[in-house]
Amino acid sequence: MRVAALIPAAGSGTRLGLGPKAFVEVAGRSLLGRSAAALAPHVAEVLVALPAGLDLPGDVPARAVTGGDTRQASVLALLRATDAEVVLVHDAARPFLPGAVVGAVIAAAREVGAATAALPVADTLVRAGPGGDCGTLWGTLTPREGLWAVQTPQGFRRDLLLAAHGAALADGFAATDDAGLIARTGGAVRLVPGDARLFKVTTPGDLALAQALAPVWDAQVWDAGGA
Ligand code: CTP
Ligand code: MG
């Protein structure tokens, strides 16, 4: 089955505050360039959704489409631009992507139809009250057992994901990820162990972590011939 990597990279990076986030560089390479390079060896083609009016940097081996106003709209534009049987959706904002996770998500997507990288939640969970205090809603009322934090890549049979996007569009339903759209239509989603290094660069604190990790990551990829 032909596999395509779809990278939503059309966001504005509001929380980071440095312009469109996919173009922000860490140790000399953009977040998008890092994500595309990690996926390229595993797939037949890489497609990227970009903000309107921006072009792909020369060092990103991919085909570009114009993204939409939301992540969901950007992924739908990407889905419509490929005829691959299996698609891997991966945020440009997650630059440190181990090859073993890519392989495991592709295998699970082929088997089940939908799969995502995810990590068991390690922190105590609380729900904040209106003023930010949580008091009586402390972690015992929000047990973390069985809870996973969802990452990307997420893998799908393309026909399943297109149908789930179509249903969400028709209902005006919005989700922050694609596996959530499959689950909403009653489809199974296989959880595949992700990686702590797959964190999403969202805030300035995340960027500081990425800058600290990049030299170690780059040395490892160089030594091992792939992460
Ligand atoms: N994304 C996209 N199209 C959009 C919005 C987001 O392709 N209209 C992409 C982003 O480029 C990113 C991924 O979806 O790779 C995850 O989104 P997020 O981390 O929220 O990035 P931004 O939307 O750029 O950041 P912010 O929400 O802080 O503005
Ligand atoms: Mg966003």
UniProtKB/TrEMBL annotation:
<keyword id="KW-0548">Nucleotidyltransferase</keyword>
<feature type="site" description="Positions MEP for the nucleophilic attack">
    <location>
        <position position="144"/>
    </location>
</feature>
<feature type="site" description="Transition state stabilizer">
    <location>
        <position position="15"/>
    </location>
</feature>
<keyword id="KW-0808">Transferase</keyword>
<dbReference type="InterPro" id="IPR001228">
    <property type="entry name" value="IspD"/>
</dbReference>
<keyword id="KW-0414">Isoprene biosynthesis</keyword>
<dbReference type="InterPro" id="IPR034683">
    <property type="entry name" value="IspD/TarI"/>
</dbReference>
<feature type="site" description="Positions MEP for the nucleophilic attack">
    <location>
        <position position="200"/>
    </location>
</feature>
<comment type="pathway">
    <text>Isoprenoid biosynthesis; isopentenyl diphosphate biosynthesis via DXP pathway; isopentenyl diphosphate from 1-deoxy-D-xylulose 5-phosphate: step 2/6.</text>
</comment>
<comment type="function">
    <text>Catalyzes the formation of 4-diphosphocytidyl-2-C-methyl-D-erythritol from CTP and 2-C-methyl-D-erythritol 4-phosphate (MEP).</text>
</comment>
<dbReference type="GO" id="GO:0050518">
    <property type="term" value="F:2-C-methyl-D-erythritol 4-phosphate cytidylyltransferase activity"/>
</dbReference>
<dbReference type="InterPro" id="IPR029044">
    <property type="entry name" value="Nucleotide-diphossugar_trans"/>
</dbReference>
<dbReference type="Pfam" id="PF01128">
    <property type="entry name" value="IspD"/>
</dbReference>
<comment type="similarity">
    <text>Belongs to the IspD/TarI cytidylyltransferase family. IspD subfamily.</text>
</comment>
<feature type="site" description="Transition state stabilizer">
    <location>
        <position position="21"/>
    </location>
</feature>
<dbReference type="InterPro" id="IPR018294">
    <property type="entry name" value="ISPD_synthase_CS"/>
</dbReference>
<protein>
    <recommendedName>
        <fullName>2-C-methyl-D-erythritol 4-phosphate cytidylyltransferase</fullName>
        <ecNumber>2.7.7.60</ecNumber>
    </recommendedName>
</protein>
<dbReference type="InterPro" id="IPR050088">
    <property type="entry name" value="IspD/TarI_cytidylyltransf_bact"/>
</dbReference>
<dbReference type="GO" id="GO:0019288">
    <property type="term" value="P:isopentenyl diphosphate biosynthetic process, methylerythritol 4-phosphate pathway"/>
</dbReference>
